[in-house]
């Protein structure tokens, strides 16, 4: 179980970090973003392998794909929120952020039951 959580959350952490760094360092044009992701392709591949392994192993245990994907989504958005504050210096509305994360958690609860 811990291995599943580490794989899914590790992949989500890498994806959230890649998107955050893209916003920070790549300009908003096709070539700049394309070049960024060509350079980051190994990290992107690793992140997707982690998530894929975690979801496949998790499906063997839980037999509930929507639950696994919802959990991965929650991890991704928690990392993205953290990185946007720490790396980009974004000022987020705490009530709106808490509501959004609460809705994801409620969805996970509904999928689990």
Please sum up the structure shown.
The chain has five helices and no strands. It has 113 residues and is mainly α. The radius of gyration is 15 Å and the shape is flat.
Explain what you see:
The protein has one domain (2-112). It is built from 5 helices and no strands. The chain is mainly alpha-helical and 113 residues long. It is flat, with a radius of gyration of 15 Å. The longest helix has 24 residues, at 2-25. α1 (2-25) runs antiparallel to α3 (41-62), α1 packs across α4 and α4 runs antiparallel to α5. The model has no long low-confidence stretch (mean pLDDT 93).
Q: Helix proportion of residues, in percent?
A: over 70%
Total helices: the number is 5
**Overall residue-averaged pLDDT value:** 93
Strand content: under 5%
Main pleated-sheet profile: none
Question: What's the helix-strand series?
Answer: HHHHH
Q: What distance lies between the first and last C-alpha atoms, to the nearest angstrom? A: 18 Å
Helix/strand-derived category reads mainly alpha
Shape: flat
Number of strands: 0
Number of domains: 1
The radius of gyration over CA amounts to 15 Å
Spans of at least 5 consecutive residues whose pLDDT stays below 50 are none
Oligomerization category of the chains in this entry: single chain
Write the layout of secondary structure elements.
Blueprint: H1 2-25, H2 30-39, H3 41-62, H4 65-86, H5 94-112
Helix pairs in contact: 1-3, 1-4, 3-4, 4-5
Keywords:
5 helices; mainly alpha; 0% strand; 113 residues
């Amino acid at each position: 179980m811990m291995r599943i959580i580490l794989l899914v959350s590790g992949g989500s952490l890498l994806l959230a970090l890649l998107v955050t760094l893209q916003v920070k360092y790549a300009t908003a044009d096709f070539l700049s973003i394309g070049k960024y992701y060509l350079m980051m392709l190994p990290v992107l591949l690793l992140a997707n392998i982690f998530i894929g392994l975690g979801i496949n192993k998790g499906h063997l245990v839980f037999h509930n794909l929507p639950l696994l994907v919802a959990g991965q989504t929650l991890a991704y958005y928690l990392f993205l929120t953290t990185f946007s504050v720490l790396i980009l210096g974004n000022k987020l509305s705490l009530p709106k952020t808490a509501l959004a994360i609460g809705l994801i958690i409620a969805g996970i609860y509904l999928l689990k039951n």
